[in-house]
Amino acid sequence: MNKLTYIMLGLLLLAAAPLSAQVSFDGFLQGLYGGRLDQNNPTETEYTASETRMQLRAEHFGESAEFFGRLDFVYDGALDSEYDWELREGYMKFRLGNNFDLKIGRQILTWGTGDLIFINDMFAKDYRSFFVGRDDQYLKAPQNALRVEWYNSLGNLSVVWSPRFEPNRLPDGRRLSYYTPFGPFGTMLNEPMIVGTGTGHSYYFDPPTPESKFKNSEIALRFNRSIAGYNTSLYFYHGFYKNPMGAEQVGVMVWPAQPSPVYSPVYPRLNVYGASLRGMPFGGVLWLEGGYLDSRDDPDGDNPMMPNSSVTGMIGFERQIATNLTANVQWQADYMMDYGLFSARQQPGVFIRDEVRHLVTSRITKLLLDENLNLSGFVFYSPTDEDSYIRYSASYKYTDEITLTAGGNVFTGKHPNTEFGQFRHNDNVYAKMTYGF
Amino acid sequence: MKNLNTLLMAALLGLALFAGAASAQTAEEIMKQSHLAYYYAGDDGVAEVGMRLIKGDKERNREFTMLRLDNAEGGAQKYYTYFKKPSDVSRLTFMVHKNPEDNDKRWIYIPAVDLVKPISADDKNSSFVGSDFTYEDVSGRHWSEDTHTLKEDATLDSSAVWVIESIPKEKYKGFARKVSYVDKASSLPLKEEYFDKKDKMVRIFTAERTEEVDGIMTVTLRSMENLKKKTKTFVDFSRIKYNQGLTDDLFTERYLKNPPRQFVK
């Protein structure tokens, strides 16, 4: 018997034990099937998803402490048939005195004001899930962390310490293709291009994370208080870029001709200083958020292998525009510092981003049939990068237990190396059925 | 003699006018009492709520714990809702700060993504969790927004009631006219009929079961029938407790994310 079987047996025993009187269980069973629409996608499978998932949730609580677990078991048949499991959450929560709340363990963390735009939320995201139609909850990847919240007369201070850096989960070339500046074996011998494992397994993307050391842990802080009915926050983050935006030379390849340097992607060191404000004027919700991303491995912007620092800000507004119809718009501007140094060193023929990158988004949600049918669309569009990403879905609650969903993801881009343009071969549609218990 | 007649007529007219004014006063007073009895029972309240949403032979269910705190009798209130069922919304929490002079403020917390989200809430007539009750049915429409007239004294299911007609002072989406049957003994609404612009009855509220809880008469089973959509919702309140000493800090983001377990099991 393998490990998984033991865990399943253990859980069954746990559920059957007298303890179950106090531990409550629920969860869901879900089938998700999706396929790509672009036959030129250089991935090795036509399926973007082909999986059966069971999520089990267990909860126990007393007056001052509680435990919560969320465990996923997945049978994944999109590539080689494989079984997988992940502890999505497993934490204990308790109160110290009157003013401190502690949450320790594997947990999902979110803060900030944006709708799918994250400036000060430096907690791990899972775009591999987000782009193939998994539920919204899978956009957030779990972190092993200790969270302390201190409530005092000035406001609320939250401190999150993650001993080990937790990166974003990005398309790795297996089901979703991506752009890489690297050629075979980490050299830069080839033209930068959109790659996938369908064109050779060497493109399987699995960058090394920072070493497991105390100094490489992540710290995120937020101070939050209400001023004149507005929720205002200050943020600080000390850690790394969540995407491997840097590169370092790790060797030299002498074959086939002249020696070529070999590179490896890295997660550059990063500090973020930010602030946000959110309130409910004009019969809707208004939010503003900004941040300064301090690229600690390239403070002067003169290292071509590391990202430059940037200042980024956004404004958003949401309101109900008719019965059961809600819409929002957001605008984000991202200003790259030391842009001259950056643009001067780019390879010829490659699209160079503007000094200020603009991004506009809009979400529209319509509820029909007594709120049982949810139609939703979300558009990202960048006029400066000339790319876009559209998410759409229709979800019908057939009964309290059964939900049927169909949807899709559309990527467009003029250039192969922009945020969404790199995914332009990944258009897909999916169908999903969920049974909640 | 003619003078006397004129005098008598004048007196009668005066009396009639006075009586009319008194009845208007009384009708508004009754509706105020009814509003306070129904929406502001005790200083605070905690209850387990079960909802049955019925459409044809199909039934959907909601289960949640509800906390309410009155900041001012007939004025600002705070509501906290912790969902238990169905499974896809379990552990989700929802909070409303109701202010009769302004838009309500609503927040939702989605634990699966640790997300606190304010909800734009200018439409009080949208459905509460897909049921036949609107947000305003749950938290109440202030009596001063309508003009009330006492139509008659009557008997409804062996209870003596006032029958009161309410007409919105300003154009209102929720109803054009409402007829309430208010129990004389408890001031609770036993039945309400909602009419649309064409004066067609579109919704009926019924107090299906009334009980005394902690010395306070309470509607523990209520229903709303939507005659247009042919749907009906039953709301069953159980384990009701009044005057639990709830405080303002329970209705903040801290407790939205960390349910107060002494009340939310």
Explain what you see.
The complex is a heterodimer of chains A (437) and B (265). Chain A is mostly beta strands. Chain A has one domain (24-436): Porin, CATH 2.40.160.10. Chain A has three helices and 22 strands. With 265 residues, chain B is of the alpha+beta class. Chain B has one domain (33-257): Lipoprotein localisation LolA/LolB/LppX (outer membrane lipoprotein receptor (LolB), chain A, Clam). Chain B has a 13-stranded antiparallel sheet with strand order 6-5-4-3-2-1-13-12-11-10-9-8-7. In chain B, strand 8 and strand 9 form a beta hairpin. Chains A and B meet through strand 1, strand 2 and strand 16 of A and strand 2 and strand 6 of B.
Sum up the structure in keywords.
heterodimer; A: 437 residues; mainly beta; Porin; 18-stranded antiparallel beta barrel; two-stranded antiparallel sheet; 3 helices; B: 265 residues; alpha+beta; outer membrane lipoprotein receptor (LolB), chain A; 13-stranded antiparallel sheet
With strands numbered from the N-terminus, the spatial order across the biggest sheet of chain B is: 6-5-4-3-2-1-13-12-11-10-9-8-7
- The count of helical stretches of chain B stands at 3
Q: Could you list the spans of chain A in which at least 5 consecutive residues all have pLDDT below 50?
A: none
Count of extended strands of chain B: 13
Mean pLDDT of chain A: 91
Distance between the termini of chain A: 28 Å
Q: How is the biggest beta sheet of chain A arranged?
A: 18 strands, antiparallel, barrel
Question: CATH architecture of chain A, please?
Answer: Beta Barrel
State the CATH architecture of chain B: Clam
What fraction strand of chain A? Answer: over 45%
Question: What structural category arises from helix and sheet content of chain B?
Answer: alpha+beta
Percent helix range of chain A: under 10%
Would you give the CATH topology of chain A?
Answer: Porin
**Percent of residues of chain B in helical segments?**
10-25%
What spatial form of chain B do the alpha-carbon principal axes imply? globular
Total number of helices of chain A: 3
Instruction: Report the biggest beta sheet of chain B as strand number plus sense, adding barrel if it closes.
Output: 13 strands, antiparallel
Radius of gyration of chain B: 21 Å
Structural class of chain A: mainly beta
What is the N-to-C order of secondary-structure elements of chain B (H for helix, E for strand)?
Answer: HEEEEEEHEEEEEEEH
